[in-house]
Design brief:
The chain has 67 residues and is mostly helical. It has one domain. Helix content is 49%, strand content 0%. Helix 2 crosses helix 3. The relative contact order is 0.17.
Length: 67
Amino acid sequence: MLRHTYYDKNEMRMPDRTSIDLTEYYDVEYWSKRFGVSPELLANAVKASGTTVADEVELYIRNKYPF
């Protein structure tokens, strides 16, 4: 399970909504909810697809796990 990481409010940046960063808990939460999958399934899909580009990972999930 991912741990919450410390961040400085002065160093906050706009989240990148084109790629998935599995090391950031808020990215994992966002993309898991967006794709309707568990965080573990999201991590497996990123590793299996070989990319962190959100559109390609979503396509992989939709083809591999049709709901």
